Amino acid sequence: MSKIDRYIANSVLWSFLVVAVVLLGLDFALTFIEQIKKVNDNYTIQSLMQVILFRLPGKLAEYIPVASLIGTLMGLGTLAATSELTVMRAAGMPIWRIGFAACQPIVLVSLMGMGISEFVAPIAGQKANLIEKFQDQEAGTFSLTGGVWLKADQDFVYIDAADNTGTLYNLQVFSPDGQTLTSIRTAETAQHIEGSKWRLNKVTETRFAADHIDKIQMEHADWDVSIKPEHLFLASQEPDTLSLSQLHSYQTYLNQQNLDGSQYELEFWITALRPIASLALVLVALSSVFGPLRSSTMGGRIFSGVIIGLAFQNALNLFGRMSVAISFPPVIGVSIPIVICLIAGFILVRRRG
């Protein structure tokens, strides 16, 4: 049986790889077409290509469940079209054994996907974010969109971008006195020195007096703020670009500060439960191959896989966002479509076999 297991696993694995390459290729092409309008003298074609390529590891990890579904449909569908599955069943091989063989490569790629999500995608995605942010820095302008706002002590701080070395980019500090704005400091970069001390570089400070405005430019300035550098870095990132450990760390910090960390908790569970989601969709694919898609064409199987995958992804987003909106535990919202697929797939497979 081991040779048959390897044969089934190889068929599913190669089909998965083909589907993953096609999905990444489509994503690359569509993203390039959508983002080409942003190209200018500062944000060149080369920069755009770098951004898209840096975000591909994260996209690969995100596409693993859908690619597992379509890959299983294609791999087992090919064996069904050549009557090889029929021969296996006639030889006494149960459906659960075929399913076990099909799940082996999916477990492997799911674990690889977890590794990518933890160690590769966050670093690459954060580099992509910095490249996009640098176009404003090179143009000598400051953008108040796409970054993050924080309340630091008595000041309000805007950070356009940050990296994991503790460097902040395009920083603006708004200092009020009650309801009156007293000064604005802008800095191209800021480096953490120690404790609560930061060094601002290329600083422009605008001070608002009762009857005049003073503008002072400095090469360097000191900045004291109580927020830790790792929290400033994590706050400047989108939740979907963070690793599981970073999501857990920042969510814990927000909860300790009595702030809303549900978006980070939601993204944590979406990533953490991705391998189980992949296996649930493989179970659905297995029940379909031995059921309604047994005699369909390859095109029909791919189309069915795309529809099921889109329905699953939409349900995942719907229940996940709903759980955040109604202050329900995100883990339950994310688990609902996964559990539905597991139960439906198990019942259908049991009926077939």
UniProtKB/TrEMBL annotation:
The protein's superkingdom reads Bacteria
Q: Where in the cell is it found?
A: Cell membrane
Keyword line: Cell membrane, Membrane, Transmembrane, Transmembrane helix
Primary localisation category: membrane
Q: How does it sit in the membrane?
A: Multi-pass membrane protein
**Segments crossing the lipid bilayer:** 12-33, 63-83, 95-116, 268-290, 302-320, 326-349
Q: Which InterPro entries match?
A: LptG, LptG/LptF_permease
Q: Which family does the entry's similarity section mention?
A: Belongs to the LptF/LptG family.
| Role summary | Part of the ABC transporter complex LptBFG involved in the translocation of lipopolysaccharide (LPS) from the inner membrane to the outer membrane.
Quaternary structure annotation from Swiss-Prot or TrEMBL: Component of the lipopolysaccharide transport and assembly complex. The LptBFG transporter is composed of two ATP-binding proteins (LptB) and two transmembrane proteins (LptF and LptG).
Please give the PANTHER family that the UniProt record associates with this protein.
LIPOPOLYSACCHARIDE EXPORT SYSTEM PERMEASE PROTEIN LPTG, SLR0882 PROTEIN-RELATED
User: What protein am I looking at?
Assistant: LPS export ABC transporter permease LptG
